[in-house]
Amino acid sequence: MTIQLEKANHFIGEADHLLVVSHLHPDGDAVSSTLAAAQMFRLLGKRVTMVNESPIPKKFTFLSGVEEILQPERVMNKFRYVVALDCADAERMGNSRELFAGDVKILNIDHHPTNDHFGTVNVVEPGAAATVEILFQWIENNKIPWNKSLATAIYTGLLTDTGGFRYSNTSSRVLRQAAHLIEIGIPAHIIADTVLETTTIEQLQILQTALQSLQRTKDGLIAWMSLRLQDLQRIRAANDDLDGIVNYARNILGVDVGILFRETEQQTVKVSFRSRSRVDVGSVAKSLGGGGHARAAGCTFQGTLEEAQRQILSRVQAELERDGK
Fold first, then answer.
1. For residue 266, how many other CB atoms are within 10 A of its CB?
2. Where in the numbering of this chain does the DHHA1 domain appear (predicted)?
3. How many C-beta atoms lie closer than 10 Å to residue 122's C-beta?
């Protein structure tokens, strides 16, 4: 990764004004890496504009500078130098790409194994738990002085993408980085309470509705829930209110794969996967046009909810049978 970061330094050195963008419907790592990268670049003397197609989830509004992340329609410039964070492919940037100049150069920094290396320069580390883990190393390599807002952003990304340091991607390196950030003086317990323990009434209403649809295969290895478009419209749910719902299916004793099927419009179903050990759901999602990690991934299915359930459950069942041979 050192050579990749040297190339990234050269990229940043060439630029005067950088556009920093992460994936649409941003999670904790996407928001945190955007803010951390922007602060780092400003400390290096660069002008920075941050954009995201989607609104920032309310639970991340405590992060310093979050109000500066703009939706693309509020930005008039075209940018030749773009830093893409936590995006497995260019499509994940959504309509932020409308701000790219014709001769755009992209620095792609990501940790997804399914990343297709769409950048001019690619810093892709599938072994990293989060994109902020890569940024931590970059900050250290460049000897950029830590401050509380920068440390808080990095810590928030680590915390959320490891599920509160519970997922299998919680490496010793992640824990050493977290310890270093706590030593700087960040309020780790307050961050955890805000991003992991606080919920909205809409999120609870969605969970209540999803659990009513809960089903399992006869062997108990797959569990799934479904949300219809009218459910989401009735509850008036925001995208971030769906965060973590799929885990309730996977967390059932004996279940290896949990799935959430969610209608986003007629003939379009968003599918979220979580797995325990046997199925690489990142590979399954990628074969369906999506992506992610071995234990957490997603895709979009064109068709009815019933068609999505039938085809995807069949595909996951086939993967389990292959694993069992």
1. 7
2. 237-320
3. 18
For strand 79-85 and strand 291-292, is the pairing parallel, antiparallel, or unpaired? Answer: unpaired
Report pLDDT for 325: 59
User: What are the domain boundaries of the chain?
Assistant: 2-196, 202-324
d(CA 55, CA 152) in angstroms, rounded, equals 20
Here the tokens at position 132 are 């902020």
Interstrand relation of 47-51 and 69-70 (parallel, antiparallel or unpaired): parallel
- Which residue type sits at 279? V
Its CATH class, for the domain covering 2-196, is alpha beta
Q: For residue 7, which amino acid is it?
A: K
Q: Is the pTM of this model over 0.85?
A: yes
pLDDT digits (tens, 9 = 90+) for 265-301: 999 999 999 999 999 999 999 999 999 999 999 999 9
The CATH fold assigned to 202-324 is Diaminopimelate Epimerase; Chain A, domain 1 (3.10.310)
Whole-angstrom Cα distance, residue 106 to residue 77?
Answer: 16
Residue 237 has a pLDDT of 87
What's the whole-number mean pLDDT along residues 2-11?
A: 94
As a whole number of angstroms, the distance between CA 26 and CA 216 comes to 30
The pLDDT of residue 94 is above 80: yes
